[in-house]
């Protein structure tokens, strides 16, 4: 890009998210969620404030003795373990979802004092760390829990890329505050994915000639919570093309950077850029910070271990308590809008991406197949994409 257009771009850069947060209720709500997720990641309990009722929560994966003691002090009743229905079914070795209770409704397990300890909690949360439990925990209904609280608790753990398993108890906000524990409003948690997507702002741009595309620029987008950045790689001048080629690529550390043979991400990434470079109108690749279809790298590694013991990619996600695909493509819609690209031809084999983008108002003029041959290691993975995700193979 010429220097003149770089400075024009600089003029379009919005202020830093921190500046925008002053007095902005949405930014403040996002900040509370981001902080709460960080607290859970470091093993500290947080209060999920439901207005009338509140829950004190700690992540089963990270909580230690001190966190459990703090949780017990703020709790008004015995804690339970909140698990996604799929993980609860695995722990109990039987189905738990009644037809009336959909998969998204978490299950509360009552735990004996022996199970309410850091090591057992980690085993209950993590199928990879699972040991033979000394006793069977019992399913209990969640008495006194406002309906929105358990799903929001699970959502908060997922925002923190933690295993969706939490120790939870009805709690006193006053005691939690006295203990210095952070409080997060339930509405802020539920609104977070949309707020994060719609608050994305351009924060930097640079020309980065690539091996396969000498005319390339990278534009970075950041959400108002200061979370991980998403990137747009612009090849040529897609902003001026009528419906440029577009690839919406979810980050894959193992495939994109290391050349892992377990998936097809590396060839898809490089292949998309090379293809855009060969197009007269260029193209745009959105590189989204949605590692592992939105479950994060650590959980993807856990999923790989489960796949090595026989599960496919979809069932491995579910065994961890995650959905098959946790990505939210609204971030892509915001980025394309900010880039001034309202109409695209999408490089994908995934019909859900087409539907997801259309639902966000992106005009997808057509799909361009983006298939790469199996490599002898990822054959089963590609087969599962076709059989269980409905991927189009042509
Ligand atoms: N959870 C999980 N994620 C995986 C696995 N293998 C690859 N991924 C992730 O899947 C994402 C790749 O998705 P995309 O390249 O967008 O592919 P797609 O949605 O299947 O569809 P296409 O557009 O057709 O490629 C990356 O974030 C990878 O880290 C796996 O076994 N488990
Ligand atoms: Zn991959």
From TrEMBL:
Key words of the record: GTP-binding, Hydrolase, Metal-binding, Nucleotide-binding, Riboflavin biosynthesis, Zinc
Enzyme Commission code: 3.5.4.25
Residue ranges of every copy of the GTP cyclohydrolase II domain listed in the record: 202-368
Cofactor binding comment, as recorded: Binds 1 zinc ion per subunit.
Annotated GTP binding sites: 247-251, 268, 291-293, 313, 348, 353
Keyword Hydrolase included in the entry's annotation: yes
Active site residues according to the UniProt entry: 325, 327
Pathway: Cofactor biosynthesis; riboflavin biosynthesis; 5-amino-6-(D-ribitylamino)uracil from GTP: step 1/4
InterPro entries: GTP_cyclohydro_II, RibA, RibA-like_sf
Binding residues for Zn(2+): 252, 263, 265
Family matches, as NCBIfam families: PRK00393.1
Function in brief: Catalyzes the conversion of GTP to 2,5-diamino-6-ribosylamino-4(3H)-pyrimidinone 5'-phosphate (DARP), formate and pyrophosphate.
Family: Belongs to the GTP cyclohydrolase II family.
Full protein name: GTP cyclohydrolase-2
Gene: ribA
């Amino acid at each position: 890009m010429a220097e003149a257009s770089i400075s024009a771009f600089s003029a379009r850069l919005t202020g830093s998210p921190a500046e925008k947060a002053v007095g902005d209720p949405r930014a403040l709500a996002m900040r509370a969620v981001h902080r709460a997720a960080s607290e859970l990641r470091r093993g500290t309990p947080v209060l999920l404030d439901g207005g009338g009722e509140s829950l004190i929560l700690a992540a089963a994966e990270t909580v230690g003795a001190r966190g459990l003691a703090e949780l017990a002090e703020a709790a008004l009743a015995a804690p339970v373990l909140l698990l996604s229905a799929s993980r609860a079914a695995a722990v109990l070795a039987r189905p738990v979802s009644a037809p009336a209770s959909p998969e998204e409704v978490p299950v509360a397990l009552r735990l004996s004092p022996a199970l309410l300890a850091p090591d057992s909690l980690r085993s209950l949360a993590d199928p990879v760390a699972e040991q033979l439990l000394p006793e069977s925990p019992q399913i209990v209904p969640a008495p006194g829990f406002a309906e929105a609280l358990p799903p929001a608790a699970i959502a908060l753990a997922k925002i923190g890329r933690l295993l969706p398993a939490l120790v939870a108890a009805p709690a006193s906000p006053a005691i939690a505050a006295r203990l210095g524990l952070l409080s997060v409003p339930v509405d802020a948690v539920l609104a977070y994915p949309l707020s994060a997507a719609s608050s994305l702002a351009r924060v930097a741009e640079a020309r980065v000639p690539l091996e396969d595309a000498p005319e390339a620029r990278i534009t970075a987008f950041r959400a108002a919570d200061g979370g991980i950045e998403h990137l747009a790689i612009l090849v040529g001048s897609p902003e001026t093309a009528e419906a440029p080629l577009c690839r919406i690529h979810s980050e894959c550390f193992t495939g994109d950077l290391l050349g892992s043979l377990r998936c097809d991400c590396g060839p898809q990434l490089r292949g998309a850029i090379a293809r855009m470079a060969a197009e007269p109108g260029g193209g745009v690749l959105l590189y989204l910070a949605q590692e592992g279809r939105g479950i994060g790298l650590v959980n993807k590694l856990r999923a790989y271990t489960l796949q090595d013991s026989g599960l496919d990619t979809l069932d491995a996600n579910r065994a961890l308590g995650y959905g098959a695909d946790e990505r939210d493509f609204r971030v892509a819609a915001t980025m394309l809008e900010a880039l001034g690209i309202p109409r695209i031809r999408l490089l994908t084999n995934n019909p859900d991406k087409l539907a997801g983008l259309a639902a966000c108002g992106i005009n997808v003029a057509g799909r361009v197949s983006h298939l790469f041959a199996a490599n002898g290691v990822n054959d089963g993975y590609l087969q599962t994409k076709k059989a269980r995700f409905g991927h189009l193979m042509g």
